[in-house]
Every structure is written in C-alpha cells, then in structure tokens.
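Run log // design_07
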C-alpha cells in the first residue's frame, strides 16, 4: 500500500507529467483554451435569448423583437461553429503532438536502458503495453480533455446563470446534483482500477504470443501448437471475462449518470411549474431554467463519464512515466576522463561480477588479465564458465561489482560511453540482421558509409560474391520480409559490418553450430582479415581459432584456471586438455 505522502507525490507527478507534455506548446494551448471558452460560452447565451423571446416577443406579440432575437441567435451560432472548429483542431493538434513527443521520448529513453532491464521484462509485453498506453493518452489528450474542459465551462457557466434566473430553484437542484456527482466519481475510481487490471491481463496475453511466434520452430518441433493455442485461448478468455465485468460496471455507470441528469430535469419541471403557477417565475424564466438545467445535466453526465477516461489516462501516463523515470544504471560519468591514445590495451583487475537478478551467484570471481594491443585472446571453458559475461564488461553492458576493467589504462566507468563503444565492435554467435537492405545492414555501425566503402568491407569479409549474386545486389532486403540468409552468410555480413565500423577492439562469439566446410573456410578467412591489428577477445569453439590465438585463457566457474598457448596448455593434463579432447575437437 502507498503511504498518503507517496500517493500525493505520485498524483502530483502525474499532473506535472501531463502538463510537461503540453508546456512546449503553451501559446497554442492558451489560444485553444480561449476558443474553447468562447465557443462554450456562446452556447450559454441562447436560453437567455429564448427567455427574452418568450417573455417579451411572444407574450406581447412583438414579432419584430422575435425576428431580431432569431437573427442574433443565428449569428451567435455561426460564430460558435467557427470557435468549435478552431478549438477542435488546435486541441487535436496538441494531443497528437504531445503523444508523438511522448512516443519519441519513451523510445529514446528505452533504447538507452542497460540489457539487464530488458532481461527482467518480456519485450513483447513491454511493446504492447507502451503502444496501448500511448493510444489511451492519444484519445484523452486529443479529444477527451478538450471535451471535459468544454463541459466544465458549460457546467460552471450554467450554474451561475441558473442562480441568476432563479436562486431558489437552483438551490433545490443543487441538493440533487452534488451528491450524484460524488457517487459517480467513486464509481469512476472503481472502473479505473478494473480497467488497469484488464490492460495488464491483455498485455500478458500478447507478451506470450510474441514469445511463441519468436520461437515458432521450437513450438512446432515439440508439437506444442495445440498446447500453445490452448494456453493463449485461456489467456484471452480470461481477458474477455474481465472485459465483460468492466463493461457491466461501465454500463451501470453510464445508465446511472444519465438517470441522474434526467431526474434533475424532472425535479425542475415539477418545482418550477409550481413557482410559475404562484407567479414567482415567468414562463420564459422557466423555459430558460429548463434549458440551463439540460446544459448542466448533459455537462455533468459527460464529465462523469469522461472522469473514467481521464483516470485511465492517468494510469497510462504513470506507467510510461515509470519508464521515463528509470535512470539508466549504466551511463557516462559527469566528468569523463580523456580518451586514451591506445585503447587497444585491456586490463581486468580483480574483476568480480554477479547478475543483479541473482546477486548471490558470483559469475566472475576475481578475474586478472592483461591484454596487449593487437593481441588475440581465445576464451575457452565449459558452458556457463562466464566467458560471455567477461566480454560484456568491456563495452559496459554490465559493470563489475568489484575490481575494475580498464581500456587504454582508464577505468571504463570513467570514459565517455559513446566513445568507449565506438572503439569496440561485436560479432555475435548468431548475428541479427535488421529489416532493410544488405547495404544498410553492413553500414549499421557506420551510417553514411559510401557504397564503395560498403563493398570494400564486404569483399574483405568474403561476402561480396554472394551479395552480388542476388538479383538486387546490395539493395536486397534482409529480415522478416526479405531474403533468408544462411548462417555462414549472416556471419559474413556481420563481419563486414565490424570491418566497416573499424574498431580497435573486437569481441567475437564464435558460432557453435557447424557450417559447411566451404562456408567455414570463408568465415575463418574473413575473421582473420578482421582481427588484423585489433585487440580481439574471442569466445572460441573451434580448434583452428585457439591454435592461432596469441594466448588462450581458460575459464572455469568464473575464474581463470589456465593461460598459455595451445601447445603449452596441451602439454600438461588440465582443464584445457580435457576441453580439447571433448569439445573443441568436435
Ligand atoms: P559462458 O559464456 O561461459 O557460457 P555466461 O557468461 O553466459 O557463460 O554465463 C555465466 C553464468 O551467468 C551462467 O551461470 C549463467 O546462467 C549466468 N547468467 C548469464 N546471463 C545471465 C543473466 N542475464 N542473468 C542472470 N544470470 C545470468
């Protein structure tokens, strides 16, 4: 449970976050509000005009006056139409703009959060939730907020004019209305809680789908299609029943709120009729009073139903704000150290690390390792030894829990993160190609590279031949809707990407899956070209790689257990020898 001050703070934050969305466009907001006040204000004029027409024009048979009133009213309504257009357009503009800004801000922030943050969440669920929340906000900021303001103007203006028309009757009406609106507000609160639960359930279901579709071959291979469909079916049925429950509450909400409005009108006709009969109110006065009551009742009914959506929007901003409030745990320091002249020298000094999600399991238990400029280090060890984790410390995907990692003699935590990562390139085990052309994929680490530079990198990566054999060459589309490249081809594209990025430090994760002999040779040759002159940390799975490495570092249970050349390490009976016999030789 939230403590009251915390709740207050959150409420305040919600308001400030909504205001901060619109504040850059304050001028337009003020203009739109003026249009709104005038537009809604004009709507309040006509009951008075009708009262005049009834009491003066009709009662006295003054048709000229009636004509004047009619023409004045037509003019007023034309003016109101213009204001309505202006209000609607500018409010929508603000809403769309605010939501666009928010989308950009959320994604801009999200892509800077460290990998750990994403490990704790399902990406599909996250994407679904952000899209859902932004859509809710879009509706609210774009139209509903402006409707609420318009109704507020009509409500307040209507009540003031009611009081002017007949204070006694107004008091009677007010005896009915405020209790009704308080009831509606409590109702709205309950609906909001249910609606949040529904959104969570829907996000959960769509998160699962994303996961299943992402691993469709695994699902099919294990013949889990029916099981997965059933599981999804269950999840959406659950969403359905929650949605129905919400619909029942909403229906009751709408029904009672309009009932309240019409009850108020009934009471006015009943009490007002008595006042006219007693000669305390004119016929025109009662007509005006009725019209104002209608305006007030409609405004109130709309406001109470809008209350629900405004609350929903508050929930949506809150979740988005949570993302925006997450401070990336890994970022450049305020005072960055000058970037070293020789960043190719890497040092791990007593580096210890445990994943934040499992703080009690020490994955790296004090690693000491000096890597000289241009050296190739092959990291070997049983699966789970900590090889991947060790390499992830260099570009600061994670920070050590104790000890340090130095690049060019400087602790990586003191360097500018952009500069640090700019001197590192990674070729993962199973490289990801983004949707887009082959050329765009190669230039991913160096946007703006020329076609000649891209082709040159592809040549060095042994990728040029197969790329030019495609009918559309470098323009061939990759990814979901493009060509399906083989594992070896994707690796060579990734190598070309790294060559073009021209880093001083290279992190390679060798593919464990075996390629056909020819592909294998082409990839190995490309890697040889790529590694020349760069410091390379390679998570090695192949005998050929470890043979050519300057040094082999054997990791086991987060510790360095052996260091040396292939032949040296083979000469005594240790972890490496066993690894070669069982794993690497395969
Ligand atoms: P290797 O690359 O040598 O196979 P890793 O560095 O991938 O080993 O993993 C080392 C250990 O850290 C393993 O026990 C693994 O389960 C654990 N681990 C890896 N990634 C995470 C993570 N994101 N959260 C928690 N534990 C992790």
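design_07 sequence
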């Amino acid at each position: 449970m939230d403590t009251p001050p915390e709740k207050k703070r959150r409420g305040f934050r919600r308001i400030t976050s909504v205001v901060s969305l619109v504040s850059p466009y304050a001028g337009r907001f003020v203009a739109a509000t003026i249009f709104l006040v005038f537009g809604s204000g004009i709507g309040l004029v006509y009951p008075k005009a009708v009262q005049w027409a009834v009491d003066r024009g009709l009662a006295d048979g003054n048709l000229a006056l009636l004509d004047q009133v009619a023409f004045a009213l037509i003019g007023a309504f034309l003016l109101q139409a213009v204001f309505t257009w202006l209000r609607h357009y500018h409010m929508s503009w603000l809403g769309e703009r605010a939501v666009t800004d928010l989308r950009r801000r959320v994604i801009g922030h999200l892509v800077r959060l460290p990998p750990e943050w994403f490990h704790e969440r399902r990406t599909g669920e996250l994407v679904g939730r952000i899209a859902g929340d932004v859509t809710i906000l879009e509706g609210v900021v774009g139209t509903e907020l402006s409707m609420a303001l318009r109704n507020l103007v009509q409500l307040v203006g209507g009540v003031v004019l009611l009081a002017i028309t007949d204070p006694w009757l107004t008091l009677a009406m007010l005896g009915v209305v405020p209790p009704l609106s308080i009831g509606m507000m409590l109702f709205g609160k309950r609906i909001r809680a249910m609606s949040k639960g529904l959104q969570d359930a829907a996000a959960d279901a769509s998160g699962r789908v994303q996961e299943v579709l992402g691993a469709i071959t695994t699902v099919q291979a294990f013949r889990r299609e029916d099981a997965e469909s059933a599981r999804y079916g269950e999840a959406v049925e659950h969403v359905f029943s929650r949605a129905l429950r919400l619909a029942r509450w909403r229906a009751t909400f709408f029904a009672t709120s309009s009932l309240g409005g019409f009850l108020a009108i009934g009471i006015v006709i009943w009490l007002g009729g008595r006042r006219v009969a007693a000669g305390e109110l004119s016929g025109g006065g009662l007509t005006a009073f009725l019209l104002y009551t209608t305006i007030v009742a409609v405004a109130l009914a709309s406001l109470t139903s809008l209350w629900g959506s405004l609350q929903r929007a508050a929930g949506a901003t809150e979740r988005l704000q949570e993302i925006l409030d997450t401070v990336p745990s890994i970022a450049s320091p305020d005072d960055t150290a000058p970037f070293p002249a020789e960043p190719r020298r890497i040092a791990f000094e007593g580096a210890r690390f445990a994943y934040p999600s499992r703080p009690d399991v020490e994955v790296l238990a004090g690693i000491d390792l000096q890597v000289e400029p241009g050296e190739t280090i092959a990291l070997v060890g049983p699966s789970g030894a900590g090889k991947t984790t060790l390499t992830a410390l260099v570009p600061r995907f994670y920070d050590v829990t104790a000890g340090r990692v130095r690049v060019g003699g400087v602790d990586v935590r003191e360097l500018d993160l952009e500069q640090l990562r700019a001197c590192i390139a990674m070729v993962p085990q199973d490289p990801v190609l983004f949707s887009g052309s082959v050329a765009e994929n190669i230039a991913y680490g160096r946007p703006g590279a020329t076609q000649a530079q891209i082709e040159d990198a592809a040549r060095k990566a042994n990728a040029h031949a197969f790329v030019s054999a495609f009918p559309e060459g470098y323009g061939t589309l990759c990814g979901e809707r493009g060509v399906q490249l083989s594992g070896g081809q994707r690796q060579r594209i990734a190598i070309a990407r790294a060559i073009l990025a021209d880093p001083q430090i290279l992190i390679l994760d060798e593919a464990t899956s075996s390629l056909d002999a020819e592909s294998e040779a082409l990839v190995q040759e490309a890697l040889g070209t790529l590694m020349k002159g760069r410091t390379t940390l390679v998570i090695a799975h192949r005998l050929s790689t470890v043979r050519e490495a300057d040094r082999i570092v054997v990791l086991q249970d987060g510790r360095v257990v052996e260091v040396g050349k292939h032949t040296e390490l083979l000469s005594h009976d240790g972890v490496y020898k066993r690894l070669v016999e069982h794993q690497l030789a395969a």
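The pocket of adenosine-5'-diphosphate is lined by residues 119, 355, 357-358, 363, 381, 383-389 (CB under 6 Å).
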